[in-house]
Amino acid sequence: MHTEYQDQVTVFKAFCDENRLQILEMLRSGEKCACKLQENLDIGQSSLSYHMKILCDSGVVVSWQVGKWTHYKISEQGCERAKEMLEAISTTNPTDEDTNCC
Amino acid sequence: MHTEYQDQVTVFKAFCDENRLQILEMLRSGEKCACKLQENLDIGQSSLSYHMKILCDSGVVVSWQVGKWTHYKISEQGCERAKEMLEAISTTNPTDEDTNCC
DNA sequence: ATATTATATCGAAATATTTTGATTTGAGGT
DNA sequence: ACCTCAAATCAAAATATTTCGATATAATAT
User: Fold this and answer.
1) Which residue has the higher pLDDT, B100 or A27?
2) Which of A68, B21, B69, B83 has its CA 20 to 30 A from that of A87?
3) Is B77 exposed, middle or buried (0-12, 13-18, 19+ CB in 10 A)?
4) Is residue B83 part of a domain?
5) Is residue B80 part of a domain?
């Protein structure tokens, strides 16, 4: 249906789940591979993989392969994009106050 | 279970739904009452009320009554809080790179 | 007091997200 | 080639969110 806000939804979804926030906190101290992340989480392997996909889709995290391991880190660029989006969403622009109400 | 990230979830939920993003966009041009918001949305009255509750719970929007109307506007303070949270979440702090992996 | 209007709340249904366990894929190692 | 391991994917179940219609509440008007 309306798809105009889909990008923003995809980005902010990264921050709307406690497991993902915990993962992001772990990544703040530097890149980690999935197995390292898994150690500190109370979820199964496929569930972690699911959350990592959402985080990567948001652009806030990037992943790359090293042998059979997948490494993850926070993307500076992705975070900047999220901040810009939040700035844009929250900046008021009271040009047509007259159309307000009732 | 773990409740440590609940505050952040509550805040960012505001930005994770297309209807709510559309509502926020409408509020960017100034305060509005529910009936005005409703005009531009394709959802029922109780559904709008539900979304407004989520937005107010996040702190990003504030509401107040004027007679029988409820008015809503974007909260500068609430937005600042959201931005600070995002900053905190996304700031990397690579002090213990050694504990990273594998 | 009664009626009207705007919004909130409730319970149930519809829909979306998350978890789980099983399977698959793909990189190494033997 | 075969085995092992890390991670992704799949289908189904579990859970959470969103919507809808009905009702409740609270302010105002008659």
Assistant:
1) A27
2) B69
3) exposed
4) yes
5) yes
